[in-house]
Amino acid sequence: MGGLKFGVIAGIAVVAMNAPAICRAAPSDLSWSTSRPVKVIFDTDMYGDIDDALALAMLHALESRGEIELLAVTISTETKWAARYVDLINTFYGREEIPIGMVSGGVSAQALKKSKYGDYLPSPNGINYTQYLSSLTREGGVPVYPHDSLDITDCEDSVALLRRVLDDQPDRSVVIIGVGYLTNLARLLDSKSDRASSFDGRALIEQKVRFLSIMAGNFAGTELDGGKRSSGLPEFNLEMDVPAAQKVFQQWPTPIVVSGSEVGSRMLFPQSAIDRYFSYVDRHPVAETYKYAASFYRKFSKKPGSPHDHATFDLTSVLYAARPEGAYFTQSGAGTVAVLAGGRSEFVPDNEGNHWLLVLPDAQKARTLEAMTMLVSQPPAHCVFRKEQGAPTAVGTPCRVVE
Hints:
globular, alpha/beta, Inosine-uridine Nucleoside N-ribohydrolase, Chain A, 15 helices
């Protein structure tokens, strides 16, 4: 999730960048394509904003198409509701077996509420969307959306899960998508060899990870001397754990492709798509999440009664990770992202750098938004409903009912 406050109140203008595609190494040395399906780990805060939920729906659609394999989901917000919500989404899409990791001693829901962003969390009546969806029940207390009643301690520690999953994969085969605070990834860097892997964290990443696709920072400002780019504004994902963000950008050994908040703020997921494309079931967790949060977001709108169209911050990093050669974006030249005090960020061009910024050409904006919208709204290949709930009304969807 990114650009919480700024994404809710207003879109952020972006200065177009006429930059070459990724070119630090020759194509034969650095190919961004991977074998299909792309092996993906999704690291998310899944609490601060609903774009994380839309991004998870995208990943399930991409897996149904055979484009990715979702290996694990790790959560950087310490709250049971985030874990339960991720599990109910995975279960709805028929993939309840996907392992979920939880941060330990990281940013908590309570800390978020006390932060300057507390008033902007999508929590109508003080109830976050993750708690609201996870707590919905039918007559007799049966959950509307089946999920495990996970507590924080029921989930595997995120770093332990990351180490275990990475060690099982072929070399340089995994793409990690980071769309929350960077606590889990920084701790992975610091991890030592253990029973899961003989490699320490940095070596394990270098051995197994192809690249990191990350939603972080804000690079929409004036181009400074020497081609530096910085908006001068803090960004939510960075600000909530600045030391972790600094560690990741300074020490991560593989290429990092960064989608700043200015990219997703230029493409708004239309509420009309929620109203139109999710009616193949009576109740859909992603649609219900969107509508629940929209009632909260609309109070920040200049037209409170109008539909709420939502910034696609995290969706951009998912789309690039799955389809890096899809021409949805262009990339800056190589450089280095520095995380500054207060969660501000700066990109400095450097031919020896290992970071690249995503850039959204005006000509590709409509096509890119359409791709994300269609993926988020794609019906599950195998959705799951408990028998006691009754089968949903479905159109062309092979939903299965289990005991």
